[in-house]
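Model the whole thing, not chain by chain.
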Amino acid sequence: MGDLLSVRNLTVEYRTRRGVARALDNVSVSLPENTTLGLAGESGCGKSTLGRSIIRLVPYPGVIVGGEIIFSLRNDIEYDGQVIPKGEVDLVTLPEEAMRKLRGEEIAYIFQDPMTSLNPMITIADHFVELITTHNPEVTEEEALERAGEILDSLGILPERMTDYPHQFSGGMRQRVMIGLGLALRPRLLIADEPTTSLDVIVEAQILDEITQLKEKFNLTMILITHNLGVLAQHADNIAIIYAGRLMELADTETLFENPQHPYTKALLSAVPDVRKPEKKLAWIPGAPPDLTKPLEGCMYHPRCPMATDRCRVEQPPLVKSPSGGLVACHLY
Ligand code: SF4
């Protein structure tokens, strides 16, 4: 099966008063259809910037300054009398009007905080009807409600709750509604950005299981962004480890957990609790990620890396094939 998405040498900068912060530096990842790619790393490492770049909603003052985001369109996109034929398009250069159609119809994004995306003044049913009929004027209100009911049912929300307002739902139920809205236009790519961070662990586990079931049901391809590697162990096919805006390691999930290569990946994994090994001592990574407005020479991880050599302090490691079969950016390989 081919790639649905291919991010190539993507570079994103935030032009702040304190200087230019390179949030992503030449990042390349591919996403075969019907697979889940996990993006992991500490807060501020660039994983959300990568997700937001794909839908071209990098928060201000972020700018995509280089690279390509190649997406395989399922249908022609029509806007303002123009047609973009189906097939591969570069999302970086796509006109904004076309991107607006593509968001929701081809790519859905689930944000961390559902309350910021729901309108407190209208019912859940109205959210669905408005979204579906705006994008598909030929769909009747009745049909839109039927589609909404089917999706919400898969997420454990009873049809009678559709006439409720967002504030009448718990945090977990609101996030389920957001997931349902994300799927309402039948997208092919779902980007879930820390979708369960603000929820308790039981609700988190339930929602992640539901997302994975919906992925199968709707033939979705998915990007799951989280700082929690334990979540990715269960739900991702491949994992990209990002640090200070650079791709450090990319491997299939089993390989990454069984045979991590990059010192940063190893450090992240040593901080993951394992209920099967209660005797495991949890480690932490000393220091903090670098200030991206003052980029370091050499490997961005060198001030925190126990394996760093003089070469690491002056020369940036290229991304190369790792002995485990994935990709790694480290002078040890
Ligand atoms: Fe550590 Fe050097 Fe590898 Fe960077 S390149 S992770 S500093 S060993």
